[in-house]
Amino acid sequence: MRGALRPAGRLAEVTRRVGVLISGRGSNLFALAKAAADADFPADIVVVLSNEPSAAGLTLANHAGIPSVCIDHRPFKRNREAHERAMHDVLLSHRVELLCLAGYMRLLTPYLVGAWQGRMLNIHPSLLPSFPGLHTHERALAAGVRIHGCTVHLVTDIMDEGPILGQAAVPVLHGDTAETLAARVLAQEHRLYPAVLKAFLEGAGRAPGAGAHLINPLPGPPAAP
Q: For tag attachment on the chain, is the N or C end more exposed, with fewer CB atoms within 10 Å?
């Protein structure tokens, strides 16, 4: 599986250059790169960028043949915008057209959000607008919800409030812990993110309108006999 190198006979008519931002293990990066290896997927993962030198996802990217860059945020002290400008320069040097956040754990400033407005996607481990921010699984269990899940949305200046592009739901089971619930949600993140990215690109980068069916790759109930 190689995210940046495509097989011959590419079927997708237009292939967009996608960058991925990570801070950790990169499991959603792996899901995106695996999907992008298919000939009919409309995106190439051309660079992986992290703020954490120890991020396991950087090693994953290297093994997948995807260029990876780390720009540690610590030398920038509290100047978040200066750090983002350095990242932005890397994205431009790789001619990135669309940006996917995949476990990127830094709050973004208006600079980067503005530079990538309408072209930056994020995946969040809850059914937004419920449980924005951190510790979503613990909060879902504390609230007693029976349905939990994940959301892919466009990034805006307000954290986790951008237009929703797709969601996948999972049941909350009796005896669930934050860890067991997180594992169930993560499995659906890996299915949802590639599906939404593909649909977003094939739909000319438009968010679904009011009343549109949201993308959900989970199988529906069995058909009646």
A: C
Give the sheet arrangement for strand 120-124, strand by strand: 68-70, 43-50, 16-22, 98-101, 120-124, 147-154, 164-171
Q: What is the pLDDT of residues 47-90, one digit of tens each?
A: 999 999 999 999 999 999 999 999 999 999 999 999 999 999 99
Of 185, 210, 197, 104, give the one whose Cα is nearest residue 153. 197
Q: Is 124 a catalytic residue?
A: yes
Neighbour-count burial of 108, counting CB atoms closer than 10 A to its CB (0-12 exposed, 13-18 middle, 19+ buried): buried
Distance between CA 129 and CA 102 in Å, rounded?
Answer: 19
41-62 burial, b if ≥16 CB within 10 A, otherwise e?
A: bbbbbbbbbbbbeebebbebbe
Of residues 73, 83, 88, 124, which has the active-site annotation? 124
Beta strand spans in the chain (E): 16-22, 43-50, 68-70, 98-101, 120-124, 147-154, 164-171
